Sequence to fold (591 residues):
Amino acid sequence: MYREVLLAHNEQPHHFYALSQPTHAAHGHNPLCGDEITVHLRIESDRIKEISFTGQGCAICKASASLMTLRLEGLSVTDAEKNAQGILKWLNDATAEQPDNLGELEALLGVRKFPMRIKCATLAWHAFLKALNQPAISDTNKESSASCGCCGNGSTPNGKHLNDGCGCGS
Amino acid sequence: MAEATGNGGCAKRPLDVASIRDDFPSLSHRNSNGQSIVWLDNSATTQKPRCVIDALTDFYTNYNANVHRGYYEWGQRATEAYEGTRKRLADFIHADAAEEIIFTRGATEALNALAEIIGQRYFQPNDEVIVTELEHHSNQIPWQMQQAKRGIRIKGWRLEEDGRLDPSRLEELLTPKTKLLAFSHLSNVLGLIPPVKEIIKRAHANGTLVVIDAAQALAHVAIDVKDLDCDFLVGSAHKAYGPTGAGFFYGKRALLETLPPWHGGGTMMETVEIDRFTPAEVPFRFEAGTPPIADIIGFGVAIDYLRQFDWEALSKHEEDVVQYAEERLSALSFIRLAPCPTRRTAVVSFLVDGLHPHDVASLVCDDNIALRAGFHCCQPLMKRLNYPSGLVRASFGLYNTREDVDRLVVALKRAVEIFKR
Fold:
């Protein structure tokens, strides 16, 4: 399960920071293990201009999030959504066909054999889809969204998560 | 069926771990690399000796019948075997009478039943129930549900930094409104045994009822409910080498008599009319419907299996292996043991520097080692002791050996190497 690619992405994850001006964000939490990932997006002209993530989790969770950012950045919203849905289907359903051009994501193949760990690999992808489906963060709330307490990015004025502003959903 | 071997006089089987391991067919399984299983998840569930597995097969093959009903021989045999477990269990935990043992589908169901029937009879709005931060979710949520249902208030008994339950804190929590205190005899995370008897004494001095969660303790600690003077105690078969789906609660007879039935159905009633019923006597009042007969019979066989050994020899062996695990693990620079201010019993939890607990448990799978990682159904404890991703847990049983620990150490070193690359 712990392929070299995953270990590398866990050790030095790509896009592992909060965006300063996200248009969308969503929080994914796995209460059974404590893993938490927040996906931050900047969507411009229906395209994923920037994508990043923050949070903490196991190696599989972080590596999967890192691989996700590489795969989705630059895609149109429609393509990115389709892509994420395809990956989720592939991870969750052992009979599903392998999506095209998996690239490094193929390293997650081993995880499919461990049902207990699939949710580690899917957490970030679910958070991404959740972010897409949330209303865009309005300009006035952008600052607070980047420093939401619950996403681990510093604190909001009252030290609490701003439900409507951050959009991280927790 | 084998006679229950009590404490008096019977010759005990010597504690020969190799022969014990032979009793457990599942322990001989090997992975594709030929490595035998190292079962270190005994706090979740224990492996089963052949005699327990055989008892299940024997029941279904040779005398499968419902209990307390059939006039035919199988029905009688099934009832005798089922009631035999009640006697064995009463004897095992030193209850006054078999009627003080109520069968359930497990310790979780036992705690839910107790919370509901004690709540119904004794809880008034604004009454208080104390639970500790050590507790398994199954000794928290049933009381929280009573909080919502009956307007009682849950008060948490805070753990000290070193994981200790300080009885002097209890004194601060007890008030005239404190109806009940529920706590664990053995922590499934820390391996800690609180000063159970002293705590019960202090609670009783306040007129507070005490429920002991002995799910973890049953297979590892000699339990004497009379000596402890607890009002109620719960346990589970499958954590004591018995089948899943069977458990029990003990209650002092005089208290059980005051409690209403829990589930309605067959067996729990005496007479039924179209719009009313009268409840049956203790213990049947609390046992509605067809119970898990085979599993309860298997539970009795598991108790017999345990009791054929001298308890002191058994404890000494488990202590030796647990202590060895502590020594070997603390000697590794990358391991941080969870605190336990007293001697650890059956459980050693730890963190591996730089590795998420889930990754540790997954990595040692390759060496056919079964560890548990995560919150272990103890989120308040993890929060209190600041383990946001939980802990890795190795938990031991009577068949574990020092060699199991050695293999764990090798696997942990390998796991760390893999992440170092």
